[in-house]
Amino acid sequence: LPLKYLPDLDMAKQYDVLFRLLMLGDSGVGKTSMLRRFTESEFDSSHISTIGIDFKMKTLEIDGVKVRVQIWDTAGQERYQTITKQYYRRAQGIIFVYDITNEPSFQRIVKWAGDVDEFAPTEVNRILVGNKTDEELSRQVSKEQGSKLAKSYGMDFFETSASSDSNITESFTRITELVLEAHKADVDNLLGSLDEYLDKAGLEEESDRPRTENNTQRICSC
Ligand SMILES: Nc1nc2c(ncn2[C@@H]2O[C@H](COP(=O)(O)OP(=O)(O)OP(=O)(O)O)[C@@H](O)[C@H]2O)c(=O)[nH]1
């Protein structure tokens, strides 16, 4: 492989694997805010409802693996659900979000989870998140209720605040870890063959090089 291709190989190594995560929950629970907090370290107190679906990317390093996550932020509003359901199938991880100050948003997790059972692959990883813990005085759903529901679904549970940046990184990291664990065999295979490819590329490049005094010049000109 000619030396000039090496920078492209470096680009390819900026991340090892890409996963798709999906955020689901009622309108106003804070899905967009959690995602903005996680990817841009920002928070906005105004509510601009997501139209249809949007996504943001972030790279995490877990156990030495560079994982790029594409996080899909869905609109909680009913009218967009025909569109958003089309994305369930492509997700490897799902974050269910409710608002701890809004009991109906918690009750509706059952409905969101039911939709996922119907439209997402069965092996999809899931976590449950109760957001807005900074609004403790307005709390309507206890931590125990959240934890119990999560347990009944076999999900990990977090209480977060996008506003005060509590448990946001932890939640996104946990779902990414679960997805990575679930796909460990595939990832190992992929990384194994990529390493092999890079080693091979390095060897070929060595053997391509003319064994003359001009070696240095040739390397520099690339
Ligand atoms: N106090 C508090 N407010 C929050 C928090 N997270 C989000 N909010 C506010 O809740 C409102 C709704 O937040 P969004 O992030 O737009 O909610 P969403 O779930 O994306 O809503 P849709 O796009 O309509 O589905 C906004 O006014 C946010 O500022 C939080 O952790 N604490």
UniProtKB/TrEMBL annotation:
Catalysed reactions, semicolon-separated: GTP + H2O = GDP + phosphate + H(+)
Topology with respect to the bilayer: Lipid-anchor
Main location: membrane
Sorted UniProt keywords: Cell membrane, GTP-binding, Hydrolase, Lipoprotein, Magnesium, Membrane, Metal-binding, Methylation, Nucleotide-binding, Prenylation, Protein transport, Transport
Pfam family, one: Ras
Xref: SUPFAM superfamilies: P-loop containing nucleoside triphosphate hydrolases
Composition bias, Basic and acidic residues: 202-212
Subcellular location, record wording: Cell membrane
GO cellular component: plasma membrane
Stretch list, region Disordered: 202-222
Organism superkingdom: Eukaryota
Molecular function terms from GO: G protein activity; GTP binding; metal ion binding
BP-aspect Gene Ontology terms: protein transport
Family from the record: Belongs to the small GTPase superfamily. Rab family.
Role, per record: The small GTPases Rab are key regulators of intracellular membrane trafficking, from the formation of transport vesicles to their fusion with membranes. Rabs cycle between an inactive GDP-bound form and an active GTP-bound form that is able to recruit to membranes different sets of downstream effectors directly responsible for vesicle formation, movement, tethering and fusion. RAB15 may act in concert with RAB3A in regulating aspects of synaptic vesicle membrane flow within the nerve terminal.
Subunit record text: The GTP bound form of RAB15 interacts with REP15. Interacts (GTP-bound form) with MICAL1, MICAL3, MICALCL, EHBP1 and EHBP1L1.
PANTHER family found in the cross-reference section: LD44762P
Protein name listed in UniProt: Ras-related protein Rab-15
